[in-house]
């Protein structure tokens, strides 16, 4: 029978929140939250930044591959780190 007065010790976020949860736990509180906010702002505004730089002659193909690969790698590392530890 469940005890409503006792907190469960095995609570973990779903896998898709694991990277954010790990980032919040390893970084100091204010910089971690600022980093998440900055990531969200860049994520939302990146199509406009990409179009702006493409119109000015930048080759964004390689830049997009590097940025996308780095984002996937960081997400995978933080997610797996949270699952393993």
Shape by Cα distribution: elongated
Task: State the total count of DSSP E strands.
Answer: 0
| Arithmetic mean of pLDDT | 89
Tally of discrete structural domains: 1
CA(first)-CA(last) distance: 29 Å
**Structural class from helices and strands?**
mainly alpha
Report the portion of residues in β strands: under 5%
Helix and strand element order: HHH
The level of helicity is over 70%
The helix tally amounts to: 3
Give a verbal description of the structure:
With 85 residues, the protein is mainly α. The protein has one domain. The protein is 72% helix and 0% strand. It contains 3 helices and no strands. The chain has helices at 18-26, 29-55, 60-84. It is elongated, with a radius of gyration of 18 Å. 2% of the residues are buried. The model has no long low-confidence stretch (mean pLDDT 89).
């Amino acid at each position: 029978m469940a005890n409503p007065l006792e907190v469960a010790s095995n609570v973990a976020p779903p896998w898709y929140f694991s990277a954010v949860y790990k980032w919040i736990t390893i970084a100091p509180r204010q910089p971690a939250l600022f980093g998440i906010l900055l990531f969200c702002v860049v994520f939302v505004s990146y199509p406009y930044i990409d179009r702006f730089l493409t119109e000015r002659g930048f080759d964004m193909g390689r830049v997009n591959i590097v940025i996308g690969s780095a984002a996937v790698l960081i997400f995978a590392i933080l997610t797996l780190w949270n699952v393993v530890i």
